[in-house]
Amino acid sequence: MPQDIKSVTQLWDMAAAFLVTYSMQIIASLLLLIVGWKISNWIATRIEKFAIAKGVDVTLAKFMASGLRLLLIVMLVIVTLGNFGITITPLIAMVGAAAFGITVAIKGPLANFGAGFAIILTRPFVIGNTVTIRGMTGVVEDIRLGATFLTSHDGERITIPNSKIVGEILVNTRQYELVQTKIAVDYASDVDRVTGLIREVLRGFAQLPSDMAPEIGVLEFGPTGLVMAYRYRVPSRQLYETQFAVNNAVIAALRGAGIDFRPYYKADLAGAKSA
């Protein structure tokens, strides 16, 4: 027991001596880290806003800001270590010696980082686009080196590793999605009148892009009646609410005009389809 007490006392004396000797360096280093971290974040944020204001793509601007922030933090750590007389040369040697093992261990993340660089440089999509990747559809919220983040129409957050994106078939509909809906009317119906009523309904929705005219016409001759189709583009973030409102308005317009709806057979079954 006395020996244990002596050991603890020695450790305490060593810790106290260390604190006395390096207390100012520790305080200065902590202040340097805190202030430097805040300054690096401020600089990176300003660079990002400046780049966006000059017309640089949002994705590229974010990547530039993140890279600058990382560089500043690395420089900050080097300066902080220097305050304690620690050089980074041995650390670099250790990293080099362990590089092969680390590469094998993190082959997956490295592949994601490489794919992330490819996405940022080639820009097959940017933040705000609506994309379909490996069967998953959503609005691009963020693109990082490791993964791309989407938000689905139901508000779900979708994380896709970048290595699963590069080399795959990708559908980019920008900020719009295509909605196609079918409706069957009696063969005796005036096609031009039905087309005009649907077109007038669609004109009443200000959120539909004015430079993308809707397409309306007879799609097929069904066993119960004429199958009319109308196709239009809608902002991805307003997909379902707009689609439902349009369908309700079309039904009301056709009923108000005395247009006779026909029942669907299985071959006529439709539904809104996003592309």
Tell me roughly what share of residues is in helical segments.
Answer: 40-55%
For the record, the CATH class of the largest domain is Mainly Alpha
Morphology: elongated
Number of strands: 9
The CATH level-2 architecture of the largest domain is identified as Orthogonal Bundle
Secondary structure class reads alpha+beta
Gyration radius over CA: 31 Å
- Report the sheet with the most strands, covering strand number, pairing sense and barrel closure: 5 strands, antiparallel
Residue windows where pLDDT falls under 50 for at least 5 positions: 100-106, 267-275
The chain-level mean pLDDT equals 78
The overall number of domains is 3
* CATH-defined fold name of the largest domain: Helix Hairpins
**What portion of residues belong to β-strands?**
15-25%
Which keywords apply here?
disordered C terminus, 52% helix, SH3 type barrels, Alpha-Beta Plaits, alpha+beta, 3 domains, Helix Hairpins
Mind explaining what this structure looks like?
This protein is α+β, with helices and mostly antiparallel strands. The protein has three domains: 2-105, Helix Hairpins (Orthogonal Bundle), CATH 1.10.287.1260; 125-172, SH3 type barrels; 176-274, Alpha-Beta Plaits (2-Layer Sandwich), CATH 3.30.70.100. The chain is built from six helices and nine strands, in the order H-H-H-H-E-E-E-E-E-E-H-E-E-H-E. The protein has helices at 2-53, 58-83, 89-105, 107-122, 191-203, 239-256; strands spanning 130-133, 136-143, 147-151, 157-161, 170-172, 176-185, 215-221, 226-235, 273-274. The strands form two sheets. Strands 4-3-2-1-5 form a five-stranded antiparallel beta sheet. A four-stranded antiparallel beta sheet has the order 7-8-6-9. Strand 1 (130-133) and strand 2 form a beta hairpin. Helix 1 runs antiparallel to helix 2 (58-83). The longest helix has 52 residues, at 2-53. The protein is elongated and about 100 Å long. 17% of the residues are buried.
